[in-house]
């Protein structure tokens, strides 16, 4: 027996029901918007009627007769007055509209008991640091009131402080780093650990603003950022740290985030970069991200001291001059880079003296990326050779004028093995992963104004460009696409940024020249160059 086909409403009923629900919801929303005044007046009439019933129920029985007589008199007067019923109706509708409006609960004017106790505890903890026996009217005293010291305060949904403005006396030594560090450590401990706090000191106004910072986004993958030539995105930071945002794509979502942009080239004040971190902190990820951005406009030379093959995805790509993992190849490549820097300087100088623009081959940026050069230094010392870092003196010193940029990444415990030239000329600094305050100050030159978190994700750290402020930093996810632990979305993001493969010279087809062409070229070559007589062509 042949089966009859299902009705159309049953075959695709799910889509029809979904569309019907959407239409019904849209119609209900539209009807609510249109009938909102009527709904408000109806709600007001119900509230007025309920208030009238409560008034009647609360009136004693011996007073209900006079009340009815008073109401009837008012109704009679309104009915006899010209336009009285119309004015009464308008007044009733206005009263119903005012009574039926949506009312929001008033915000609390002050902190509750638990919040006040937390502020009082924080105030008592600051008394030993912000008080002096000689002060005739101390702002901080045991048993004093906290409302004069804390002018602004905010709490999150868990009841912990999210923002606090602290007033302190003028005699507090806020210009000394040790004094400020003690206050910051105390506020961090008393306000709740596990969060990042930003401390903004206003020495002129004797105010300290403590703000809880939100977590930086860790889900932004590598992509083509909207930047100009000579600009490299190191990562992303807080909105209050920079005055610029970049559009990024996160899956199907597009949003604007504030970046940390490092500018290189002939007009850069920080032409070279030093990256420090612990193993697994993301230093190689940052170098890989820089390489992918640099290949868009220039050439890249990579020297990998660890020999782990983290840059295998760049092998044979357009713009990648070499990827050296051994000591001999690193020495040869860095020696070539030093000679290339000198050649660019000489060519540009001759062009300027002749009144011509610099040659085009000197304008193309050249990037030298070194990952863990201290490991190669140990191998060179054991083999009796020169340290590869000694060949970086010329690119580091004259790289800005020659359009040559050097980026060095190494571990925190190996920074002592870096050469003096690397430490002196790398004025752009990045520290990734967990680090002590002393290590951060040693690398960045100044301690950050934020507290570190208990758990640091990969690629999370701090960045400082020259003498600028210290920014929180989150490096975009740029993993090795050949690593098995890499997610599929991040693998595709990196593979889409890789340049095309370059054709090796030995695979190109070679055409044998004609004998007449060989003789013609030989006759045109000067004898001073060839050192021999031209060879006549055979008949």
From TrEMBL:
Keyword Transmembrane helix set for record: yes
Gene3D superfamilies, per the entry: P-loop containing nucleotide triphosphate hydrolases
Record field: transmembrane: 67-98
Region (Disordered) location: 439-460
Keyword annotations of the record: Membrane, Transmembrane, Transmembrane helix
Protein name: FtsK domain-containing protein
Organism this protein belongs to: Streptomyces alboniger
Lineage: Bacteria, Bacillati, Actinomycetota, Actinomycetes, Kitasatosporales
